[in-house]
Write a structure and sequence with these properties.
The complex is a heterodimer of chains A (114) and B (112).
Chain A: E1 4-7, E2 10-13, E3 19-25, E4 32-38, E5 44-51, E6 57-58, E7 67-73, E8 76-81, E9 90-97, E10 103-105, E11 109-113
Chain B: E1 10-14, E2 19-24, E3 32-38, E4 45-51, E5 56-58, E6 62-67, E7 72-77, E8 86-94, E9 99-102, E10 106-111
Parallel strand pairs in B: 1-10
Antiparallel strand pairs in B: 2-7, 3-4, 3-8, 5-6, 6-7, 8-9, 8-10
The chains are: A mainly beta (114), B mainly beta (112).
Chain lengths: 114, 112
């Protein structure tokens, strides 16, 4: 149980385009979903926390207009990287939390902006 | 506090030996401490957690020790196997798992 999926697993895009990443909890309802970013050989950095039906809470230094988060249902959250640039290339990982339980992580999405 | 991006320290151990991975945490208010394993190109995988009111917890081949006096956490892996090779992250949980902050990882290399 407690499986989280992400789509796509890998995406390559041109600079200036927008990219949408989906995060789904497959067998549980996630009251809260989290988005992390991980650069090579570094730790996971929390970008934002989203609760179903409400606006996401962004960590300090994360631009909310650049990283749009939509948590439309209890099983789906999306992260849209708008006007992506090469410095946005990273490994994006989501996690989902069921009420009163732990965080379960997705497999990650590798974004490469050319 | 926020984790800082640094190059990962590496621990090399012989297959069959025990491994000890250490971590220093920063927030005295954290009520959960978690160890995750991350293989290359994958998301973190939960290994074991411990509540702040405990000092030791055992799982299958793994033991987590918590020393709140010096804000230190360790993960012991018994009889390390090649499949244990990965990056291990400690993390602090605030409000349970409401907010999880990752520490600096340690790369574990198991020598066959």
């Amino acid at each position: 149980g407690a499986v989280v999926s992400q789509h796509p697993s890998r995406v390559i895009c041109k600079s200036g385009t927008s990219v949408k990443i989906e995060c789904r909890s497959l067998d549980f309802q996630a009251t809260t979903m989290f988005w992390y970013r991980q650069f090579p050989k570094q730790s996971l950095m929390l970008m934002a926390t989203s609760n179903e039906g409400s606006k996401a809470t962004y960590e300090q230094g994360v631009e909310k207009d650049k990283f749009l988060i939509n948590h439309a249902s209890l099983t789906l959250s999306t992260l849209t990287v708008t006007s992506a640039h090469p410095e946005d290339s990273s490994f994006y990982i989501c996690s989902a939390r069921e009420q009163g339980a732990g965080q379960y992580f997705g497999p990650g999405t590798r974004l490469l902006v050319l | 506090g926020e984790s800082v991006g640094l190059h990962l320290p590496t621990l090399s151990v012989q297959e069959g030996d025990n491994s000890i991975i250490n971590c220093a945490y920063s927030n005295s208010a954290s009520d959960y401490f978690i160890w995750y394993k991350q293989e290359s190109g994958k998301g973190p995988q939960f290994i074991i957690d411990i509540r702040s009111n405990m000092d030791k917890r055992q799982g299958q081949r793994v033991t987590v020790l918590l020393n709140k006096t010096v804000k230190h956490l360790s993960l012991q892996i018994a009889a390390t196997q090649p499949g244990d090779s990965a990056v291990y992250f400690c993390a602090e949980g605030l409000g349970g798992y409401q907010k999880v902050t990752f520490g600096i990882g340690t790369k574990l290399q198991v020598i066959p």
